[in-house]
Amino acid sequence: MTFEYDSYRTWHNEKILTDVVSKLKKRDFDAEYFATIEETTEALTKAIPADAAVGIGGSVTVRELGIIEILEKRNNEVVHHWKPEAAKEKDRETRKKEGLADYYLTSANAITMNGDIINIDGIGNRVAHMIFGPDNVIIVAGHNKIVPDIDSGIRRSREIAGVINAKRVGAKTPCAETGKCVDCKAPARICRVTTVMQYRPWQTKIKVLLVNERLGY
After folding, report:
1. Which residues, listed in sequence order, are joined to residue 30 by a DSSP beta bridge?
2. Fewest 10 Å CB contacts: which of 57, 88, 127, 191?
3. What is the mean pLDDT of the chain?
4. pLDDT by residue (tens digit) across 28-81?
């Protein structure tokens, strides 16, 4: 059920997101605001050529957009290691191939009010491809990923995204049982590589789409 009060939340989120867009542009990122998922997927469909190969990072946000199905339907080559039929023994090769695509589509664990983009990975393929490899990187993030500062972004990445993703993949970690991060030393720990992009890397085109919706973890 939608209440009239929701409009005020939407208004507030829009003010925050459009301000973050301006901050990202000052960091040399190409950034844009979208009000809805539908507007976002339409923009992505226009931005990605029909003959382009698209690598997809490990991102719930991207899958919630429905963009993978749209790209596959129009016969884009879509590479992602979450495909049910993807062979486990070729997992590393698939992850590498994602980074060789014309476009790499993913999300972020957190984006600060000043335009820092924060991520934590277990393997590192996602953050590596975001920084260098594909000619074009597109990062999509909902309003729930916006945080005040870098410290808050790292906490969010560990205590929210990390915990929920550990549960999603069935990791044998304390957080997957208790729902709380304890900065564990478990062999199955998924929080292993932390990156903070403070400015766009020189040789990578990065577009950031901020959406006034709750997306991903």
Report:
1. 207
2. 88
3. 94
4. 999 999 999 999 999 999 999 999 999 998 899 999 999 999 999 999 999 998
For 151-172, give one letter per residue: b (16+ CB within 10 A) or e: eebbbbbbbbbbbbbbeeeebe
What sign for the dihedral angle of Cα 22, 37, 213, 189?
Answer: negative
Assess whether pLDDT exceeds 60 at residue 164: yes
As a whole number of angstroms, the distance between CA 130 and CA 137 comes to 6
- Cβ distance 155 to 134 under 8 Å? no
- For the domain covering 6-211, report its CATH number: 3.40.50.10420
Residue 214's CB is within 10 A of a number of other CB atoms, namely 12
φ/ψ region of 216 (left if φ > 0, alpha if ψ in -120 to 50, else beta) reads left
Helix (H, G, I), strand (E, B) or coil at 203: coil
Chain segment 151-161, per-residue pLDDT in tens: 999 999 999 99
Q: To the nearest whole percent, how much of the chain has pLDDT over 70?
A: 96
Beta pairing class for 193-197 and 117-121 = antiparallel
